[in-house]
Amino acid sequence: NARPFVTHHNTLDKDFYLRIATELPLKRLIIGGLEKVYEFGRLFRNEGMDSRHNPEFTTVELYEAFGDLESMRNLCEGVIRHATKVCLNKDVIEYGEKTIDIASPFRWVSMAELVKEKTGLDFTSNLSFEEACAFAREKHIKIEPHWTSNGFILNALFEEFCEADLIQPTFVHGHPIEISPLTKKSEDPRFTERFELFMNGFEIANAYSELNDPLDQEERFLDQIKAKELGDAEANEMDYDFIEALEYGMPPCGGIGIGFDRLVMLLANKPTIREIILFPTMRDEK
After folding, report:
1. Which 8-state DSSP code applies to residue 277?
2. What DSSP character marks residue 5?
């Protein structure tokens, strides 16, 4: 979910969008019969700039047929640990005044559990949307027009009260279905089989058990269109080509994207992404 850069192709007289992720083409390759695919990809997102965000950045994204969230978790933890060992010859990352322990097993905790720890509100209970909104307002969270169910509130509370405290490597799983339009549902259909890896208070990786049901996927895209109509600039567009590809059959699949620039920031002990990217986007001198 991100706002794209829009441009116009003169020959075809058609609007084009710079890619915000390498996800859907790689999934098409899985559908086409390749069992394991990856790409180091340049991405473009028309959003804010700060020490961790640049409009142009790099990820490594991969998909594995018959993989799942657990296989992506093992792969991710192994890659981070191996990169740290090779680059630093250590089992820890010294980042500023913090020491991040890479040797110990990474924590595995649900988003709802973290929010309950910080705020006392339990989103796994039979909480009404009105109750969730009232609680969010008490915490000075602005309720956006496209927030129509509890999942949006849960995510906002997590970002406000939990994210910055996740210094040691932490897999946060169980994301709300509302913010995970390409992910398989969990046993509790309010949540999905997804995790994000956080280190030093920011996201390093994002992984799914991939949604491979074309009917469910079409419903998710329709929900995204409704959210866009209500003002969500980062909602997905409908992608009928991808739905048609799913109709041919996609095997159960695990997928993950790792933020290359942010991982290098940690390993190189650099405080801003602008020191990692050769030509970062900058404001005008004036």
Report:
1. S
2. P
Q: What is the pLDDT of residue 181?
A: 87
Q: Please report the pLDDT score of residue 1 as a whole number.
A: 65
Task: Determine the Cα–Cα distance for residues 257 and 196; give it in Å rounded to an integer.
Answer: 9
Q: 149 falls in which pLDDT band (50, 70, 90)?
A: very high
Does position 34 have pLDDT exceeding 70, yes or no?
yes
Angle between helices 214-229 and 240-248 (to 10 degrees): 170
- For residues 52 and 24, the answer to whether their CB atoms sit within 8 Å is no
Element (H, E) at 227: helix 214-229
pLDDT (tens digit, 9 = 90+) per residue, 180-221?
Answer: 988 999 999 999 999 999 999 999 999 999 989 999 999 988
Whether the predicted pLDDT of 14 surpasses 80: yes
The pairing of strands 253-259 and 194-199 is unpaired
Q: CA of 54: how far to CAs of 35, 83, 94, 270, 280, in Å? A: 32, 23, 23, 15, 7
Say if strands 170-173 and 107-110 run parallel, antiparallel, or are unpaired: parallel
Q: 0.85 exceeded by the pTM?
A: yes
Question: Are the beta carbons of 63 and 26 closer than 8 angstroms?
Answer: yes
SS3 call for 253: strand
Among left, alpha and beta (phi > 0; psi -120 to 50; other), residue 147 is beta
From first CA to last CA, the distance across the chain in angstroms is 32
Question: Which residue is listed with tokens 């991939």?
Answer: 210
d(CA 280, CA 51): 11
